[in-house]
Specification:
Strand content: 35-45%
Radius of gyration: 25 Å
Number of helices: 2
CATH topology: Immunoglobulin-like
CATH architecture: Sandwich
Helix content: 10-25%
Oligomer: single chain
Largest sheet: 4 strands, antiparallel
Distance between the termini: 96 Å
């Protein structure tokens, strides 16, 4: 009886370990791009990678597809291209890249991008289809934007004040 309880305890501990170590997705800019300082017209890449627990030698099983890219900050970005990662015998523990997204910053402003409903399955198991990456915040600025008249007036008043202060000194 004690052997049976020990065996059940070990099985529950193993199940808890696997359940707590489920993989997750991470979305990040590629090549050192500063997503908080994008310039109008700039092309850049965002990568979605697998992080967390993976078994050595575990590779993408493919075929599950699915998922949705959401752009809360639309129409700031335009998705130009979607590139799947290398799935041919690429072990997730050495090459966690799932896919690359190529964007162009089209309109000044801020927003987020994220993926939802992504499915993960491997040569060892099916993790399901409720994975999300992001939200990844971004800001697009227009370097040719003309300052507002109030800003120009404030700068003018500051310069006038400095000139008067210098004259008195």
């Amino acid at each position: 009886m004690q052997f049976k309880n020990t065996l059940v305890g070990l099985a529950l501990a193993a199940t808890a370990l696997v359940a707590s170590a489920a993989p997750s997705l991470l979305m990040r800019g590629v090549g050192g791009v500063d997503l908080n300082n994008l310039v109008l017209g700039q092309a850049f890449q965002v990568e979605v990678v697998l992080q967390g627990f993976t078994t050595p030698g575990e590779v993408d099983g493919g075929g599950s597809g699915g998922g949705l890219l959401t752009q809360d900050g639309s129409p700031q970005l335009t998705l130009q291209n979607f590139v799947l990662g290398n799935f041919v015998n690429a072990s997730w523990d050495t090459d966690p890249s799932l896919f690359l997204l190529d964007f162009t910053a089209d309109v000044a402003g801020s927003g987020t991008v994220e993926t939802t409903g992504q499915c993960l399955n491997s040569n060892l198991q099916n993790y399901g289809c409720n994975f999300a990456s992001g939200p990844l915040a971004f800001t697009v600025r227009d370097p040719n934007a003309v300052p507002e008249p109030a800003s120009v007036a404030l700068v003018g008043l500051a310069l006038l004040g400095l000139g008067l202060a210098r004259r008195r000194a």
